[in-house]
Amino acid sequence: MSSIEFIQRVIYSLAIALLLVYSSGLPKRSLFLSCLTFCLLILGINFIPLYRGSSLVELLRGVTGDVSTASGALMLAIIANQFDFSEQKKAVLSRYERLFLLLIGCILYLSTFSFISFDVYHLGYLSVSMLIIVALIIFALILYNRKMGYVWLLALLGFYFQLQSSNNLWDYLYDPILWLVLIVDTILWLNHSLIKQNLKHEY
């Protein structure tokens, strides 16, 4: 197994195991049972064959492809954040950050499918302007102590050390799964906002 495949497997394994443990409600009952279940799930989703000898992790990777470094880090951070029961708990991404990422995805994929004449994806091939813009965004986010800044810094380091098979920076910062999740999240948020607004008008 190559180092790239190992990293992808680790990201998928941790994310699935954390999600299943959180969904079970165990963290609110017993820390010991949560840790034990988490370890058992890590083993199960990697070694129990589900379809033609493939494990759950292998099946998901086959369907969705590799996860970007930033997307993987965000996924793990958001799930892990659910285990924070302190009063000062903050969301991993603010609403503005989610809308910002959604806009980036729209521009990137509209460009990829030639709806925009300018090739945004090509900037990811060691473009100096791209590196400067990303570095400035990371600096600003870290300055305001936003977790997204650290996530993108991790993605930039992943690009430098070639932790994925791609040599395009965009593939470390973004992927179609993250874009689809943000689209669904925005639709649900808009729907929730409309419902709240209608309830206010009714009363």
Give a structural overview:
This protein is mainly alpha-helical and 203 residues long. It is built from nine helices and no strands. It has helices spanning 3-24, 31-47, 56-64, 69-81, 95-112, 128-143, 147-160, 170-173, 176-202. It is globular, with a radius of gyration of 19 Å. The N and C termini lie far apart (61 Å).
Helical residue percent?
A: 55-70%
Arithmetic mean pLDDT: 85
Rg over CA atoms, rounded to whole Å, is 19 Å
What distance separates the N and C termini? 61 Å
Q: Structural class of the secondary elements?
A: mainly alpha
Main beta-sheet annotation = none
Instruction: Write down the overall geometry.
Output: globular
Number of helices: 9
**pLDDT under 50 segments (min length 5)?**
none
What's the total count of β strands?
Answer: 0
| Residues in β-strands, percent | under 5%
Spell the H/E element sequence: HHHHHHHHH
Architecture blueprint of SSEs:
Blueprint lengths: L2 H22 L6 H17 L8 H9 L4 H13 L13 H18 L15 H16 L3 H14 L9 H4 L2 H27 L1
Helix pairs in contact: 1-2, 1-3, 1-4, 4-7, 5-9, 6-7
